[in-house]
Amino acid sequence: MTTMINPFIVDAADQAELVAIEVTGITEIASAMPGFVRGSIHRSLDGTRVVNYIQWADGDSWANAHSALTHDERYRAHMARVQRIATANPHAYEVVAVIEGRSPKS
Predict the structure, then answer these.
(1) Alpha helix (H) ranges present in the chain?
(2) Is 106 a residue whose pLDDT tops 70?
(3) How open is the CA angle 30-77-59, to the nearest 5 degrees?
(4) What average pLDDT does the chain have?
(5) Residues with Cβ < 8 Å from 33, sequence gap 6 or more?
(6) How far apart (Å, rounded) are the C-alpha atoms in residues 98 and 106?
(7) Is pLDDT at 4 greater than 90 in this prediction?
(8) Is 73 exposed, middle or buried, given 0-12, 13-18 or 19+ CB atoms closer than 10 A?
(9) What is the pTM for the complete model shown?
(10) Is 103 helix (H, G, I), strand (E, B) or coil?
């Protein structure tokens, strides 16, 4: 599995708008791409950050999606909305470990 992690810096006043833009982008654009597994959006408690976390079946799925999306008008419009209010710093990662918590005993 390949994970795309995209941290954004945003003014606190624009955080809710960025979250909405990113939720729409994952729901309407990324999730339609072959190899999409799941996506999540995280917002910082201080309002100055948003993180977009998207998992792809493998590196080829991510590379193919990225290549296709750079030519997609919906994606370009999406990114223009993002870049109007935020700065992004995306990177692709390989998941090397997932550690699950234990439920507390009652």
Answers:
(1) 15-28, 59-69, 73-85
(2) no
(3) 30
(4) 93
(5) 61, 64, 65, 68, 69
(6) 25
(7) yes
(8) exposed
(9) 0.88
(10) coil
Other Cβ atoms closer than 10 A to 18 = 24
Cβ neighbour number for residue 7 with a 10 Å cutoff? 17
Q: Identify the residue whose tokens are 């080829």.
A: 60
Q: List, in order, residues 6 or more apart from 17 with CB less than 8 Å away.
A: 85
Distance CA 35, CA 29 (A): 13
Q: Count Cβ neighbours within 10 Å for each residue of 24-63 and write b for 16 or more, e otherwise.
A: ebbeebbeebebbeebebebeeeeebbebbbbbeeeebbe
